[in-house]
Design goal:
With 363 residues, this protein is an alpha/beta fold. It contains 12 helices and 16 strands.
């Protein structure tokens, strides 16, 4: 049974930043690196216009903790598949700085200037045989996943597994993971505003009386879904989503296999929004802030995060429809077509970790 360590937002004699230090010290983070190791902190810097990403102050605290233990931390992410403020390294770093991440530690885009800095990792799993992993991930001595736990359109939630799978892959890898998702336009909702056209990375969208998607060109990146303000672009909810979940798990497995005992996972359960931080806007949270989790098991930490969210009281006037009471499934309420537990079940079946865990609160 895996161990997951937890701190709440409640403070007594010391502040929350000091509680983060105790969490890192107790949970075993120091065991993944040695003195002078280059330790990459996998962070989502937030899309331009998004406000829900993890506060840079918390990231700086973790980086300083690692630095004080003798290692050399740096922040990293990878280029996005969709057009936007993070599609290449120059724009991505600029966005990170504008969002407050100039915190005295280097910012590096792990897959290079244009997203083609990569190496293949052979895993021979059901969906992925060779995973296309960002070059920096291959070269770093250790990786710390620092994930903003929130909801997600395709997998119902995004935590440690998604942070590593998407965030450590090259553009080629992201394309492999998304390629089973099929967006289509709801004719009754589309007003031909053209915003999806501006964000499509392969010019697969045409605007007439309504938007239309050229299936031959579409790479299923999902950027049109993220930017449509009227919810006019939807997904064919069928077996394709389970394929997406399997590919996420397999890409996370590839990184875990590559780094072995030199990878660690931290989930921030703050600002638990109904959408991903890739969206250029942020809606109100669905539950109150909960705290921070840490573990060496990506499945256990994501399972514990889901359980803590579902055991919280839902916030009225949020996107939740009915699941406001403790114990009710918030993820199924928001995304009834997505079997969020399947992704964890599949990840467990391929040996990524365990859904069984013990939760140890650090006060």
């Amino acid at each position: 049974m895996s161990k997951v360590f937890f701190i709440s937002l409640k403070v007594k004699d010391t502040g929350f930043l000091e509680k983060i230090d105790r969490l890192l010290d107790t949970s075993g983070l120091c065991g993944i690196f040695d003195e002078n190791n280059l330790v990459g902190l996998k962070v989502h810097f937030g899309e331009e216009g998004n406000t829900a990403y993890i506060r840079p102050l918390f990231i700086k605290r973790i980086a300083r903790f690692i630095e004080e233990k003798g290692a050399k931390p740096f922040l990293f992410d990878t280029t996005t598949l969709y057009r936007g403020a993070r599609a290449n390294a120059v724009d991505h770093i600029k966005t990170a700085i504008e969002n407050g991440f100039a915190i005295d530690y280097p910012i590096i885009i792990a897959d290079g200037l244009l997203g083609n800095g990569k190496r293949n990792v052979e895993i021979n799993k059901k969906q992925i045989k060779n995973a296309s992993i960002a070059e920096l991930v291959y070269s770093s001595d250790a990786i710390v996943s620092i994930a903003h736990f929130k909801c997600h359109l395709l997998s119902a939630f995004g935590g440690a597994i998604k942070n590593i799978a998407m965030g450590c892959s090259s553009k080629e890898g992201k394309l492999k993971m998304h390629s089973s998702v099929s967006p289509y336009v709801d004719k009754t909702k589309c007003n031909s505003c053209g915003i999806c056209l501006r964000y499509c990375p392969v010019d697969a969208i045409n605007i007439g009386d309504i938007a239309t998607i050229d299936r031959k060109k579409c790479i299923s990146c999902g950027s049109c879904i993220a930017v449509c303000k009227d919810g006019a672009i939807e997904i064919k909810w069928d077996i394709e989503l389970k394929t997406f979940q399997e590919r996420l798990a397999e890409y996370c497995y590839a990184v875990a296999l590559l780094k072995k005992e030199r990878i660690f996972y931290i989930n921030f359960l703050l600002n638990i929004t109904p959408d991903c931080d890739c969206f250029p806007k942020s809606d109100m949270p669905i539950v109150p802030d909960i705290g921070v989790l840490a573990s060496d098991d990506p499945i256990a930490i994501d399972q514990a995060s889901c359980d803590l969210v579902n055991n919280s009281i839902g916030i009225e006037n949020s996107k939740l429809k009915e699941a406001f009471r403790k114990g009710e499934d918030k993820f199924r309420d928001l995304f009834p077509e997505v079997d969020w537990e399947y992704g964890l079940e599949y990840a467990e079946s391929i040996g990524l970790g365990s859904r069984k865990y013990t939760l140890k609160e650090i006060t």
